[in-house]
């Protein structure tokens, strides 16, 4: 490019991606980087985080570690413009399948984790001219998935929290939306498939159950996130984009 700097929609902005060391978070980090943002990956396990990104080890269920990590990001970059609250864990079974400790653990990571991270980043976001937050919910937020009671409760709460945060911070110029993926091809889903007797057959069956006949690609989710945190979506807040091959619309 003859020495000319590439320009992207997120040039000059700093983005935190929680759960950014794996799966959807890793794809989101890469996409926001490609769009010009400087990236801070925040993950409880940064061992396999992409080395080109600054990595901060923190557990979103632990307020002390979250506050230390956000302070470290602020100190290193001098600004925080975008927060992608993507870290999350799964839970299987009906309402009787998980004990109180597991309910508390999943809700603490999937729901309260968003509040902890965002609250710690708020003083920085308030100073940004382009502040945007994207939470990773799920089609479980809006549709009845069998044997996913606790997980669905957590993601329904993410949808409600997204609207509440959007309302509370509207006048401060901070936009808040969510991306709601269907079944996506990530290490998480890989681990579930690996526990099947015939992982290849199970993968084919899982793909066939999707309306578009395949798993969602992490890059497709990352593309929706990139839009929701970019100036292109400047009038969009308190809502979501489903990236699910049409699954939610069929229910
Ligand atoms: P993944 O397991 O591949 O990656 C999750 C990442 O989050 C990991 O790097 C993990 O270390 C990190 N993480 C987990 N708990 C954490 C904690 N307490 N503190 C900090 N980091 C933590 O999973 P994925 O499939 O990429 O899922 C990412 C998000 O997408 C989750 O919120 C999940 O609920 C959501 N989601 C996934 C799918 C799917 O099919 N994969 C579908 C809908 C929604």
Automatic annotation (TrEMBL):
Record keywords, A-Z: Oxidoreductase
Transmembrane segments: none
One protein family per Pfam: adh_short_C2
CDD domains: SDR_c (cd05233)
GO molecular function: oxidoreductase activity
Family: Belongs to the short-chain dehydrogenases/reductases (SDR) family.
SMART domains for this protein: PKS_KR (SM00822)
InterPro entries registered for this protein in UniProt: KR_dom (IPR057326), NAD(P)-bd_dom_sf (IPR036291), Sc_DH/Rdtase_CS (IPR020904), SDR_DHRS6-like (IPR051122), SDR_fam (IPR002347)
Chain ranges of the Ketoreductase domain: 13-182
Protein name in UniProt: NAD(P)-dependent dehydrogenase (Short-subunit alcohol dehydrogenase family)
Source organism superkingdom: Bacteria
The organism's taxonomic lineage, starting at the top: Bacteria, Bacillati, Actinomycetota, Actinomycetes, Micrococcales
